[in-house]
Amino acid sequence: VKPMTPRCTVPKAVPVGKSASLHCHENEGYPKSTYSWYRNSEPLSPDTKSNAKFQNSSYTVNPTTGTLVFHAVHKGDTGRYSCIATNDAGFAKCEEQEMEV
Fold it and tell me: Which domain holds residue 85?
């Protein structure tokens, strides 16, 4: 079963240096969906250590639960966030939401 549009929760504004949690979830997909996050339409690498572009980022993505956690946000984390739920039958994307730091 193709995933339905996931429900995304993105905080509107987060003070610099604070942590932030972004959530993405849908229940219809079978097999269970995996989740990937995007900032300004660029995919956020789930593996920040091996990707030079993301080495200064302090976030972790859990593809199974759809949670994106910033441990300490900085100005560069400001942007439009969206999430895509994917399984063998297809994918669905939530609306982009702005997070300001």
Answer: 5-97
E-assigned strand segments in the chain: 7-9, 20-25, 34-39, 42-43, 59-62, 67-70, 79-87, 90-93, 97-99
4 close to 90: Cβ distance less than 8 angstroms: no
pLDDT per residue as tens digits for the range 29-44? 999 999 999 999 999 9
- The pTM score is 0.90
Give how many domains the chain has, as a whole number: 1
SS3 assignment, position 57:
coil
What one-character DSSP code corresponds to residue 55? Answer: T
CATH of the domain at 26: 2.60.40.10
What is the C-alpha to C-alpha distance for residues 44 and 60, in angstroms, rounded to an integer?
10
